[in-house]
């Protein structure tokens, strides 16, 4: 088929289906381009006196509603720069050079049709683009979130292969790091008095990330429900009108919106069947979810990037922000995504301190396979997303995986 003909076949099909004589398109809402260099060995280069390494540049289109980058030609990149992301354009008003590239851009989902066929890929892409528009993402935040998500990444193997599995290995491979503190300033440092430590100071010193969980005994219901109530439950509500409710929780939240939800993987908790759950903050209850299509242990290992030292936690919690709730207020706001990510830090510190107070171990990790978790929990990554995984449970009696406890507040050195 001659180049450019397939777009007219699409147009004719739409005319026949809808009875409309005009087919209109527009560019997707958020789109950026990356110039990426590819390096490959070619024998011809070596034979011609080169070093054998051939470098080529290619353009990648980054559209968050698609989830994956799309390679485009320079001509297609230019066409995308001429189409409005907000106004619909009649296809028959476009120049021949634009029409020549339009078919591939529609297939990629970078250009959407106003009235695609029901059940078609184009309809799904139009629907995804519409949802992205309705979520009020800032373009840079949407790009960052969409294209930093992992799938099937083995974080442990990556560190082993790179030789950065230990602190000594990191120093050897990466060289010396920046200094732990910076001392630039005007004049001498002013020494401050040390306050007499109290019970809260002792609690803070006992806080240490747990990488050794005891899977030989279940977590009592009383400790489990207290943890969830302290960290994720709504302590009070403020209602403004009929449809606007603010929760008061034990951790701060940007705009008081509390978009972060807790999706649980329960392994060993008295009275709770192992499986996936969503915690309901307003009623302090658990909503059972569809079981994963693989053994629960395998689901967990894939979730945390094969970090086996976290996989025995009695309860793992995926922090899932509802972006549409935060961006209802912070519409296309340059700080919107940052405010959401800060909340994971607030909640994890509350979780750590609560667990420490109850004699439990806790952890948080960002080395997670977000796309795997989205599939497992049935999340829409445009409106929701897996941001981090934390967990808690009984700490093991013996340390098999190293933990950072230099003050020996958790572990006592033997010998």
Automatic annotation (TrEMBL):
Pfam families: Nitroreductase
UniProt organism field: Stenotrophomonas maltophilia (Pseudomonas maltophilia)
Name the UniProt record assigns to this protein: Putative peptide maturation dehydrogenase
Gene3D superfamilies the UniProt entry points to: NADH Oxidase
Record-level Gene Ontology MF annotations: oxidoreductase activity
Domain Nitroreductase per the UniProt entry, residue ranges: 205-394
Superkingdom in the source lineage: Bacteria
InterPro entries the record matches: Bacteriocin_Proc_Enz (IPR052544), Nitroreductase (IPR029479), Nitroreductase-like (IPR000415), SagB-rel_DH_2 (IPR030965), SagB-type_dehydrogenase (IPR020051)
């Amino acid at each position: 088929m001659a180049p450019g003909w397939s777009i007219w076949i699409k147009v004719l099909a739409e005319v026949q289906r809808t009875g409309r004589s005009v087919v209109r398109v527009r560019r997707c809402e958020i789109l950026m381009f990356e110039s990426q260099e590819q390096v490959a060995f070619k024998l011809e280069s070596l034979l011609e006196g080169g070093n054998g390494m051939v470098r080529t540049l290619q353009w990648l289109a980054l559209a968050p509603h698609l989830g994956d980058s799309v390679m485009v030609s320079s001509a297609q990149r230019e066409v995308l720069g001429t189409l409005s992301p907000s106004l619909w354009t009649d296809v028959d008003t476009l120049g021949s050079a634009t029409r020549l590239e339009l078919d591939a851009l529609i297939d990629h989902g970078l250009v959407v049709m106003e009235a695609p066929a029901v059940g078609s890929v184009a309809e799904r892409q139009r629907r995804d683009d519409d949802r992205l528009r309705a979520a009020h993402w800032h373009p840079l935040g949407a790009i960052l979130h969409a294209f930093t998500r992992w799938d099937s990444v083995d974080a442990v193997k990556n560190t082993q292969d790179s030789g950065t599995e230990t602190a000594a290995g990191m120093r050897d491979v990466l060289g010396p790091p920046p200094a732990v503190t910076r001392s630039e300033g005007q004049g001498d440092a002013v020494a401050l008095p040390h306050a007499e430590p109290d019970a809260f100071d002792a609690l803070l010193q006992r806080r240490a990330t747990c990488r050794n969980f005891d899977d030989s005994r279940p977590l009592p219901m009383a400790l489990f429900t207290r943890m969830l109530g302290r960290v994720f439950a709504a302590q009070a509500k403020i209602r403004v009108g009929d449809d606007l409710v603010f929760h008061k929780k034990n951790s701060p939240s940007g705009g008081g919106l509390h978009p972060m939800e807790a999706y649980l993987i329960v392994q060993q908790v008295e009275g709770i069947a192992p499986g996936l759950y969503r915690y309901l903050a307003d009623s302090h209850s658990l909503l059972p979810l569809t079981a994963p299509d693989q053994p629960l242990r395998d689901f967990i290992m894939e979730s945390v990037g094969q970090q086996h030292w976290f996989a025995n936690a009695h309860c793992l919690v995926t922090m899932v922000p509802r972006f549409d709730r935060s961006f209802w207020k912070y519409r296309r706001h340059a700080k919107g995504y940052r405010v959401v990510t800060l909340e994971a830090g607030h909640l994890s510190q509350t979780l750590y301190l609560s667990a420490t107070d109850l004699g439990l171990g806790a952890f948080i990790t960002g080395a997670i396979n977000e796309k795997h978790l989205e599939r497992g929990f049935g999340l829409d990554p445009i409106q929701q997303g897996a941001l981090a995984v934390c967990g808690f449970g009984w700490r093991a009696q013996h340390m098999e995986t190293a933990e950072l406890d230099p003050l020996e507040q958790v572990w006592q050195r033997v010998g």
